[in-house]
Amino acid sequence: MEPIVIFLICMAVVIVASMAWAVVYAIPQAKIRSKDPRIMTYRVSSIIVGALSTPLFVTFAGICIYVGDSIGFFGIAFFGVLTLLGGYMLLRGLRWRLEARDECLLHRPTLGVTRRIRYDRITLVRISVGERTGMVKGYEIYAGKLRIKIGLLAEVYHLRNFKEYLTEQLTAHSSQAEVQIIEVGP
Questions:
Q1: What is the pTM (predicted TM-score) of this model?
Q2: Is 72 exposed, middle or buried (CB count within 10 Å of its CB: 0-12, 13-18, 19+)?
Q3: Distance from first CA to last CA of the chain, Å, rounded?
Q4: In angstroms, rounded to a whole number, what is the distance separating the alpha carbons of residues 129 and 135?
């Protein structure tokens, strides 16, 4: 059997296994993530798309390596970038979180260290709302040199409801943070 056939069979198994894992992981996660409005996370669709696209693009990159010649380098570069984007989506869905706890704001970035931000250290909160709709479209939270920006309405659980919990905690902890409401497009 040729090496490319063995590679394709292995990658098919990896794709099926990663999709099965993503679905088995995502269904309970969707229920958990959608229940607590004090926690913002990316939707589980990010996990599913990342789990499917990463091994799929690795497969295409492997085919480009096998074919070689003129499309080899550009195909490897193109599918390599797509593989990295798929891996980032998977990590973002698994890892990123912003949580309004009673004692602090907990921020866990996709890549990096989890930070506990005390409410009294928050200096500015910008909340973007639609001009016509008045619905929350995004947040910017400043605490010293740290800036947390969230603005993907369709991809984040509880983006609209988070405002009440955050302002409630800022008030409860006597924070001097300035809360700005900024009107943006529709």
A1: 0.77
A2: middle
A3: 58
A4: 5
By the 8 A CB rule, do 27 and 71 touch? Answer: no
Rounded distance between C-alpha atoms, residue 146 and residue 57, angstroms: 34
For residue 57, report the phi and psi dihedrals to the nearest 5 degrees. Answer: -75, -30
Closest CA to 122 of 168, 177, 166: 177
> What tokens does 14 get?
């990896």
Tens-digit pLDDT string for the chain (186 aa): 788 888 889 999 999 999 898 888 888 887 877 787 778 888 888 888 899 999 999 888 888 888 777 676 788 888 889 999 999 999 988 888 888 888 888 999 888 889 999 998 999 999 888 888 777 888 899 998 889 888 765 667 777 677 788 888 888 888 888 888 888 876
